[in-house]
Amino acid sequence: MSVVPVRDLSHWPLRAMAFFARLFHKQGLSCDRSESRWCRPCLISLLIVLLLLGVALSLFPPVRLADKLAEIVPAAWVRVASERAQDELDRSQLKLPLSSSERIEALTTRFASLTAPANGAPPYRLLFRNGGQSGALLYSLPDGAIVLSDELLRALPDDMDILALLCHELGHIYYRHALRAAIEHRFLSIGAASLLGLENQAVSLLARGFLDASLSEGSGLQADQFARRMLEANGISASKLDSALARLTTLPRQASIPVAILQNPTRQDLDVRLGQSRNGP
To answer: Is 164 within 8 Å of 242 (Cβ atoms)?
Structure first.
């Protein structure tokens, strides 16, 4: 999988202007004559921001720009956007978990007891859901939520496999892969909303990006390397991650998944990662 690139750059000024016109309208900032005091500063600010973003896109690759913007997006925005994304999934796709409380508690306790790798680990929380039609699921959000489904627990009865995959998801959180992918996926709109201080709009765009943006193959490999280091720090063979990933390749795939975050890697993706992870970091 690869991060979705910025599209239709030749039309980005018109698209962005139309987008922010809708945003200003939602905030009650009309551009009619009776409210011209709002029109001029809004348009000037918008044009300056668009100019800056246009120059940046012409000088730097979107990946690098997304990394820089991810460093300055307020943590509170990221937290609220992550919660909104999970709330949407809970409303539309997921259900309350049916797995035994004993296994859930055992997994939660065992994972919490693991020692972080030498470079540390981010805060996290485990959320258990029933995947419904989406089936076996494991994904993470930038606020530290790691979500796994009943169907995944049934497919992987060995808790060591689950722990290895949880270490992998913790690596995604550590490197902020989902946040960076979401920003790259919607760089113009998120960048402009952030620079203009439009918090509600920026949060909404981030939440949508968390759902829609696919992680790159490089992100998967980086998370694998984090997981291997964490497993080794706890005296667990890093080959446990290999076996867990190999087991994932045997799970049935849904024909149609509405959002990218619920899509499991393909067999080809996992074969590449398995081959490269065995060669070490």
So the answer is: no
pTM for this entry: 0.80
Query: Would you state the structure tokens that stand for residue 259, as one six-digit string?
Result: 């959002």
Calculate the average pLDDT of the chain. Answer: 81
State the Cα–Cα distance between residues 44 and 24, nearest whole angstrom.
13
Could you give the CA distance from residue 212 to residue 220 in angstroms, rounded to a whole number?
17
Note whether 30 and 59 are within 8 A (CB).
no
| Cβ-based burial of 166 (10 A; exposed 0-12, middle 13-18, buried ≥19) | buried
pLDDT (tens digit per residue) in 18-30: 555 555 554 444 4
Question: From the CB of residue 108, how many other CB atoms can be counted at a distance below 10 Å?
Answer: 14
Residues contacting residue 180 through CB under 8 Å, at least 6 positions apart: 63, 66, 67, 70
User: Residue 195: CB partners within 8 Å, gap ≥ 6?
Assistant: 49, 52, 53
Tokens of 258: 């509405």
Question: Environment class of residue 78 by beta-carbon count within 10 Å: exposed (0-12), middle (13-18) or buried (19+)?
Answer: buried
Summarised one tens digit per residue, pLDDT across range 124-141 is 999 999 998 888 999 999
Residue pLDDT, tens place only, 92-108: 999 999 999 999 999 99
